[in-house]
């Protein structure tokens, strides 16, 4: 079998635009500039893509260092299809407002379920 030497598996991804999902659910997009044997990565022109419903916003991060232990998924970004169809780009302020509204809605749902707990709906 032809396996790459340890610590070199990411060489083919150098200078490529990648989308990386972190353990906490955040999605980071940037150009891979460097990595080490622990999959720690340096991304250039990094942005955090926040998606709420059909809205999204790219928050600029600049040069970003990711610890390998926080990586869940990684893949190259197709330049022609960087934004999934059906999503509308909004400003950072609008996406923050949408996040707050989504959290409030989830909190209200939890409150309503707690009030109706005596009904044993399940």
TrEMBL record:
Which is a Gene Ontology cellular component entry for this protein? P-body
**Chief subcellular location:** cytoplasm
Q: Which InterPro entries match?
A: Lsm1, LSM_dom_sf, PTHR15588, Sm, Sm_dom_euk/arc
Which Gene Ontology MF annotations are present? mRNA binding
**Keywords associated with the record:** Cytoplasm, mRNA processing, Ribonucleoprotein, RNA-binding
The cross-references to PROSITE patterns, in alphabetical order and at most eight, read:
SM (PS52002)
Q: What does this protein do?
A: Component of the cytoplasmic LSM1-LSM7 complex which is involved in mRNA degradation by promoting decapping and leading to accurate 5'-3' mRNA decay. LSM1A and LSM1B are essential for the formation of the cytoplasmic LSM1-LSM7 complex which regulates developmental gene expression by the decapping of specific development-related transcripts. Required for P-body formation during heat stress.
By what name is this protein known? U6 snRNA-associated Sm-like protein LSm1
């Amino acid at each position: 079998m032809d396996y790459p030497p340890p610590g070199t598996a990411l060489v083919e991804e150098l200078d490529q635009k990648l989308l990386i999902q972190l353990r906490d659910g955040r999605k980071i997009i940037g150009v891979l500039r460097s990595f080490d044997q622990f999959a720690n990565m340096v991304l250039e022109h990094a942005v955090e893509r926040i998606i709420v419903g059909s809205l999204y916003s790219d928050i600029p991060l600049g040069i970003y260092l990711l610890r390998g232990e926080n990586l869940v998924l990684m893949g190259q970004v197709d330049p022609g299809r960087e934004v999934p169809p059906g999503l509308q780009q909004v400003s950072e302020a609008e996406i923050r407002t949408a996040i707050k509204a989504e959290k409030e809605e989830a909190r209200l749902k939890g409150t309503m379920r707690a009030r109706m707990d005596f009904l044993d709906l399940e």
